[in-house]
Amino acid sequence: MRIAIYDLDNTLTRRATFTPFLIFAARRIALWRLALLPVWVAMMIAYRAGLYDRTTLKTGGMKLMVGKVGIATLQDVGREFADRRVADDGLMPATLALLEEDRRQGARIAIATAAFEFYAAAFAKHLDIDTVIGTRWDGRSIVGGNCYGETKLARVRAWAAEQNHQLEDAEFRFVSDSFADAPLLDLAYEPIFISASSRKREKAKARGWRIISAD
């Protein structure tokens, strides 16, 4: 069984999606929230300083820039956001070539991302990918943890088990730009690391991962 799993931000997309989504959603839902952007920037600086974790940061970002909005509305805004990004040449050509290769070989394809599922699913639809394993939002909080690092590995394992597959027994390709995905990259039969940074590419090469330049 061939399984191919892709990260979203900076892997299938050329750039990260969360902050751009927050800005896009604020414009569509509550324009006045754009005045709070300096607060969001301060929150990101505090996160980088180690004052809180990613789950706290993302939860705070949603509450600050989006507010209490139903999932149906978020899905609608997410589709518009993805449509705009894709139309604006927002997908990564090198990764799209891998995706077509996986399709030709009959792979079971999924996206596994820390991005919220309500908009990651819209990118997946553009790419004709049915399965999205992402961070879940219930309108107030993140459910089941941020889909990142070891949590992403656990979520991918659970998905594979539902399909009656074990990742260790599969011809498993995993593609990502992030060292946070090292648990999945190290597990994969074919780990692929994509980056425009020569320093990161050298570090990934030292771990035995296949390297693709995002230049």
From TrEMBL:
<protein>
    <submittedName>
        <fullName>HAD-IB family phosphatase</fullName>
    </submittedName>
</protein>
<dbReference type="InterPro" id="IPR036412">
    <property type="entry name" value="HAD-like_sf"/>
</dbReference>
<dbReference type="InterPro" id="IPR023214">
    <property type="entry name" value="HAD_sf"/>
</dbReference>
<keyword id="KW-1133">Transmembrane helix</keyword>
<keyword id="KW-0472">Membrane</keyword>
<keyword id="KW-0812">Transmembrane</keyword>
<feature type="transmembrane region" description="Helical">
    <location>
        <begin position="30"/>
        <end position="49"/>
    </location>
</feature>
<dbReference type="Pfam" id="PF12710">
    <property type="entry name" value="HAD"/>
</dbReference>
